[in-house]
Amino acid sequence: xxxxxxxxxxxxxxxxxxxxxxxxxxxxxxxxxxxxxxxxxxxxxxxxxxxxxxxxxxxxxxxxxxxxxxxxxxxxxxxxxxxxxxxxxxxxxxxxxxxxxxxxxxxxxxxxxxxxxxxxxxxxxxxxxxxxxxxxxxxxxxxxxxxxxxxxxxxxxxxxxxxxxxxxxxxxxxxxxxxxxxxxxxxxxxxxxxxxxxxxxxxxxxxxxxxxxxxxxxxxxxxxxxxxxxxxxxxxxxxxxxxxxxxxxxxxxxxxxxxxxxxxxxxxxxxxxxxxxxxxxxxxxxxxxxxxxxxxxxxxxxxxxxxxxxxxxxxxxxxxxxxxxxxxxxxxxxxxxx
Amino acid sequence: xxxxxxxxxxxxxxxxxxxxxxxxxxxxxxxxxxxxxxxxxxxxxxxxxxxxxxxxxxxxxxxxxxxxxxxxxxxxxxxxxxxxxxxxxxxxxxxxxxxxxxxxxxxxxxxxxxxxxxxxxxxxxxxxxxxxxxxxxxxxxxxxxxxxxxxxxxxxxxxxxxxxxxxxxxxxxxxxxxxxxxxxxxxxxxxxxxxxxxxxxxxxxxxxxxxxxxxxxxxxxxxxxxxxxxxxxxxxxxxxxxxxxxxxxxxxxxxxxxxxxxxxxxxxxxxxxxxxxxxxxxxxxxxxxxxxxxxxxxxxxxxxxxxxxxxxxxxxxxxxxxxx
Lengths: 338, 324
Prior knowledge:
The complex is a heterodimer of chains A (338) and B (324). Chain A is mainly α and 338 residues long. Chain A has one domain: ABC transporter involved in vitamin B12 uptake, BtuC. Helices cover 74% and strands 1% of the residues of chain A. A two-stranded antiparallel sheet of chain A has the order 1-2. By secondary structure, chain B is an alpha/beta fold. Chain B folds into two domains: 32-138 and 272-298, 3-Layer(aba) Sandwich (Rossmann fold), CATH 3.40.50.2300; 141-250, Rossmann fold, CATH 3.40.50.2300. In chain B, the strands form two sheets. A six-stranded parallel β-sheet of chain B has the order 2-1-3-4-5-11, with helices on both faces. In chain B, strand 1, helix 3 and strand 2 form a beta-alpha-beta unit. The chains are: A mainly alpha (338), B alpha/beta (324). The A-B interface holds A 42, 45-46, 48, 50-51, 54-55, 58-59, 61, 155, 159-162, 164, 171, 175-176, 248, 251-254, 256, 258-263, 296, 299-301, 303-304, 306, 308-310 and B 44, 69, 71-80, 82-84, 86-92, 101-102, 104-105, 107-109, 112, 116, 166-170, 198-200. Chain A: GO terms for molecular function: transmembrane transporter activity.
């Protein structure tokens, strides 16, 4: 499938830029129109510092997942496991912090908790990457498998019972804390977006990521170690899930076993809405950060309209199909027209 | 402090309004002040909460001066309920009555709402730290659990093994029901053994428990969704075992009542969600009017059996699929 597409020469790259621009514009335009509408409908309620800030905090975890998934999808692969890895890392992180004083634990316990959450994510990423590269099992199957394993392991380790042994300092200073007047979860997500965006668009590794997604065989022949790139990509995605798990613990103070089931799909949705091609080759981390907020803003405004937030799913679904349709049309135009 | 100053600003604004109203008689005085109350359900897809909604809507209609909005997420998930709480808070609600999805995870958003001057009322479930909550309205779950234990012990002939669900501490109502059940069995029904089902809510968890404990003659179930799954698992047992098992469940969902009528389960301990919803609206309104409210308001339960379910006095406690 991906081999039919050559690495874009100069004029095609312009076209590519246009594709990217139009998808990102549709998404950003949708977001702006919706936000303007809600601002007009609910003066003094929607466009308030409180509302925008809590909205951003509520979706900061999805942004963390989305950054990793942008890399994965740019390389024309999938990762369905991040939501389950998030919860699994919550479980191991809470176990570790529970052993180090639980609610009374200090910053040492918090740091160990962060290390355990990140380590869990990295381990899951390593397993995913290794199986995809070495065993050559399709990524959608491998990560569906690790989704199930991580979810099951989370239940086995807890007996299905949520754990709450999260240090109070972590809840107060990370989950509810502020840096320079901004909630910490927003700062963490913004940093992740900035770093992810820099790596994907400005570094050689980012170019390799796009190249393997655009045409893996060509990338290999050009001397890129595509296996190592792929494993690194899943490490990034896993680290994103681990960090999101840590931040979830800081915000909710609970392993939230039953929760986060929609997170993986919401993040994937954000990635595609943001202009990253479903077929690999092009991706934008900033676009993902914008795309992730469409469902969030919609459900927020719908609650204010005193409607149950169900319509969100319908609107998001329509925008999603429209975005992918534009991607396809532009792509077809490029291969047919020349 | 901020809380006070906003309240002060509001009361100044309000008194200005009252003065203006005095200056222009008729119109402004006849339009009564509405209390903006939001009810956030545990999930929007459960008959229990639909009944709660019906009770709240009915109370708001009866009181006349309440602007009620009912919200919730389609699944029991603290990470889905949190954005709903935040949106309701931002939308200018004066009071929030909520069935929290997690006793701790919802603490931060509700505390933030409370700090903005919004009155918080717990309904059905409650926060682990309710210090800032105006009132908690819920079933006396330990008493209901004990009632279920007495009913089941009688049905089992005071002997055999009773299968019960594992305790999940995050959901306070459930933990209390199970604890109430266990305490009553241990204290007054010593010949009945207790076996725990796995945490999974699938039929396979019941089938596994049936295989592991051949002497199960009683089952105690806590949530109506689970009871339907259990009824399905029991149907798959051989007839001689199936007929020996008595089931007592919580919550009178229509499908569960049908199972009661066809003798697949033998008793239901129904809660009173409609009463909870009405009390939530009434309590929120009282708190907004500055009146004293009880910190904890327990609501009762009612035992439904095949014998009494035909009578209107009992049938009214069957949970509703819609408010009409």
